[in-house]
Amino acid sequence: MSSYIHDTINYLKQTSPAQDEFYQAAEEVLSSLKPLLDRNPKYQKHNIIQRIVEPERQILFRVAWIDDRGNVQVNKGYRIEFNSAIGPYKGGLRFHPNVTAGTIKFLGFEQIFKNSLTGLPIGGAKGGSNFDPKGKSDNEIMRFCQSFMTELFRHIGATIDVPAGDIGVGGREIGYLYGQYKRLTGRYEGVLTGKGLNWGGSLVRTEATGYGAVYFAQNLLAERGDSLEGKVCTVSGSGNVSIYTVEKLYQVGAKPVTVSDSNGMIHDKNGIDLNLLKRVKEVERARLTRYAEQRPSAVYTPIEDYPAGRNGVWSVPCQAAFPSATQNEVSEEDAKTLLKNGCVCVSEGANMPSTQSAIDAFLASGIAYGPAKAANAGGVATSQLEMSQNASMLQWTFEEVDAKLKRIMENIYRTASQTANEFGAPGNLVLGANIAGFRKVADAMIDQGVV
Does the active-site annotation cover 126? Predict the structure, then answer.
């Protein structure tokens, strides 16, 4: 069976060249599946592995738009519709200069299993562009989003593919995208999630990924007779996931002391000032240097002063860590530093934030480790709750949605934990989450025939 997986990875490298993040995501999932594949030959008989690593549809398009100086700009646009065996395609759009086809494919592949784990009827997809919203005016962002949607609209729909936001795509961008979709189709439907509250959005959607990562950590620790109360926590990033991880950590009695952005990090020994962080990032859209200017207890470290090959956030001693920025932000050395400094829990809010060697270090140590596809599934789960509200023309209260989110995160934990136990690897939620997510999708693919 190992050779079957090895051959699949080699096949991907030949047919999808220069997509290292995609190979990494595929190998991490497939290597976890060996116990399932050894136990049940039907997945090999139906060639599920080779089928599931190939997207059902890959859309690549040009996005031409005009900047405020009247110059024509051109970006690449992507939508990878990976798997629809259990529901319509679902996954975010990422606008960032580092976006490539490999980035979108790794994110879309991860999304298949994350969405499966929620227990909700949603397939896996991802999209985006190498457009950079930073430094752009609202009008430039609007013109870009309108051009992007002018191509994308023909491929999406409320029961076909329902995109959401991701890095670089927040409420402003979703609004511009939705307005253009409605203009082109004449339909007012739940085709995007993360919408404004007064035109179809769901309460808790903004908070969901961060809240969910904390709820997952609570389940991890409760199983060990522990809790987050009183724990010093490190958080990376300063977008939605990070901000609302910080907020929920305070609500459960923990003390978050770090945040970061692409230029550097803040270590605030008195605890992150949540209101100041929200003002700097959500209102002023400024860098974290602005936070440091207004907070005497904050120490700002620019990225060039981080230890070589390391992320400075993970050098700050903590008892729980929440990687919430981007992929591969936790190296093996970062993981060893966290463990040496007494970290007993890692709950991943970002997508694939830990390298494989870092994951191996966490698993070998026996700490409470929540892998991304389980721990950060709260965002997409709440997106599906938004879809449900749109379909029924209702809006639930904050408390109703938050309670549903909390139950979903508990169920994801239980599913991953019980599956790990089933396959003789108690506590290994990487294996448990991958097998549980895969098995549901694979069985649906077998039921639906060779399509």
Answer: yes
